[in-house]
Amino acid sequence: MEIFRRIDSASSAADAIVLTLGRTAQGEVLAMVDWPARGQVPPGRVGPLAVPEALKLARARREEGGFAEIAVKLPAENLWRAEWGVLRPEAEGLSAEEAYELASATEASRDA
Predict the structure, then answer these.
(1) Would residue 84 be called left, alpha or beta, if left means φ above 0 and alpha means ψ between -120 and 50 degrees?
(2) Per-residue CA distances from 93 to 6, 97, 106 (Å)
(3) Which helix (H) or strand (E) holds 57?
(4) What pLDDT shows up at residue 91?
(5) C-alpha dihedral over 54, 18, 16, 71, to 10 degrees?
(6) ∠ at Cα 90 (85, 94), nearest 5°?
(7) Angle CA(108)–CA(51)–CA(5) in degrees, nearest 5?
(8) DSSP bridge pairs for 50
């Protein structure tokens, strides 16, 4: 299961793809995907998209640009669904195993 870090502001995720979730008036949860310029990847913003589609795009941009992670910004905890992955609070940080997994995935994407 993929692990994502919940953030309060994009400034705390300078080396990340940021997924911002919100709910429409009809109750549908959608996401915006934002990323800064990095290497050959220009900055961008796409959305709103269904969350699975936004995650697919975020993963592709992460690999393309060698970003460290996908961070999640959401106004309410109840917007996140377990099927999308594990959401960790920003202050909690990662366990040693999770940090190793994240670092390993980052290095592998940079070597590709």
Answers:
(1) alpha
(2) 10, 11, 17
(3) helix 51-65
(4) 59
(5) -90
(6) 70
(7) 50
(8) 30
Which tokens go with 17? 């793809």
SS3 of residue 2 by DSSP: coil
Q: Considering just the CA atoms, what is the radius of gyration of the chain in Å?
A: 14
Q: Which of 30, 70, 28 is nearest to 50 (CA)?
A: 30
* AA identity, residue 43: P
pLDDT attached to residue 96: 61
Question: Cis link prior to 43 (omega < 30° from 0)?
Answer: no
Whats the size of the chain, residue-wise? 112
The structure tokens 């995907």 sit at: 33
What per-residue confidence (pLDDT) applies to 64? 87
Cβ distance 72 to 17 under 8 Å?
A: no
pLDDT exceeds cutoff 80 at 33: yes
Q: Token pair for residue 64?
A: 């393309």
Closest by CA position to 68, among listed 95, 36, 46, 91: 36
Give the position of tokens 């915006």: 32
